[in-house]
Amino acid sequence: MSHKIYIVGMGPGKEEMMTGEALCALERSDVIVGYTVYLDLLQERFREKELLSTPMRQEKERCILCFQEAEKGKQVALVCSGDAGIYGMASLMYEIGKDYPETELQVIAGITAASSGAAVLGAPVNHDFCVISLSDLLVPWEKIEKRLKAAADGGFVIVLYNPSSHKRKDYLQKACDILLETIEEERACGYVENIGRDGTKAETCTLKELRDRQVNMFTTVFIGNADSEIINGKLITKRGYDVNNRRLSK
Amino acid sequence: MSHKIYIVGMGPGKEEMMTGEALCALERSDVIVGYTVYLDLLQERFREKELLSTPMRQEKERCILCFQEAEKGKQVALVCSGDAGIYGMASLMYEIGKDYPETELQVIAGITAASSGAAVLGAPVNHDFCVISLSDLLVPWEKIEKRLKAAADGGFVIVLYNPSSHKRKDYLQKACDILLETIEEERACGYVENIGRDGTKAETCTLKELRDRQVNMFTTVFIGNADSEIINGKLITKRGYDVNNRRLSK
Questions:
Q1: What would the mean pLDDT of B3-18 be, rounded to a whole number?
Q2: Is A229 on the interface with B (CB under 8 A)?
Q3: Phi then psi for B24, rounded to 5 degrees?
Q4: Chain A residues with CB inside 8 Å of B247's CB?
Q5: Separate counts of helices (H) and strands (E) for chain A
Q6: CA B198, CA B201: separation in Å to the nearest integer?
Q7: What's the CA gap between A200 and A158, in Å, rounded?
């Protein structure tokens, strides 16, 4: 018998920010597997489901758990915050899935923080952009540094995920120092904490100011490009339309 | 009196791929403004709403129309495909909004093609990535070329939006030639056409093969990084977990 596992991106947290397709996959499932923090967000709505978790860092075990439950004949959904394919569990599921050739995988996209955070700040990502995670758990820091330099050279809007954690308190500062080698101090930036959850907080600032801001693991950071500016407290990256004679066309 | 305009990302097309928040904003609106192709997708569900459009390229006029309708006291939603903040109308709305200080803007995030296309292909974007549009309507080609080079230098996964159009038939070829200066011919790539609509088509190939593929304006292109591979027809970018002894942990 063949099985199917849904790998579901649940977006930033609130149910309203999930897609209909994601909700439908969870409704259809018997078992929902995920990191405890995400399961807590789903608990009320999906109280009749079996909710299974493995501790933080045990991502491989969490994936294997999904395949094992599916082999029992249960419909399984694995949930990830944001998009399941962007720093989520989708690729690890495909890698481990080599051992479970009878199990089909279906990824269901979710709203990633580059989109949901941008919506809070205004329109900071309205042009070519890079997303870089500052977490060096799975990547050497030198590689992250190289990408920061390349992103600055390319004139991209830059979105930073995982800008800080208990063990990496100065990583945003280190990243800003690298960017400041290429980008001017006054570059328009912003950051959002707890997107789509209680206590959402958005701030705009310059790149120089950003360097010394305290952020945490629930913060997403946005560094504008040369066409970004702060308009009425919102971080806006202009796309290049000529808006000077905008009143004339009325 | 103050007004509010919703700027809504409708995702790739299917209603199931919209968020609850986006659907709710459209339900609450009297007037839905958008490019005709997107309005057509909404017509059936929102037939009781006033649907307004301006021709392609008249983005500025479309934004002004939103503010004018809002000033009449109507609740207005502007719809964009994908995410409203990623190559969407959000930043132009904020720019033009300088003339309408009484009108508040609220961006509602949607699933962008980097997420929805990735879900079809497997997990190609599962690490740091760049999104680059090959459209040179608003940007000089030299800038696009510079970004392609920087993205290749940084070792990013690269997602290309607008890889082709009637007037830009050879742009993907030009882009691949630039990438091939840095990236090996055998690099794992993929592309998806008509994501979330009728006739969704996904293909995987090497970068060398990609150069000569025919794509259109409804195609999103994914170029893997050095850790990407094609597993059972899916394009997967590995995150760096050690999966060699995966059976042992069972």
A1: 95
A2: no
A3: -60, -40
A4: 99
A5: 8, 13
A6: 9
A7: 21
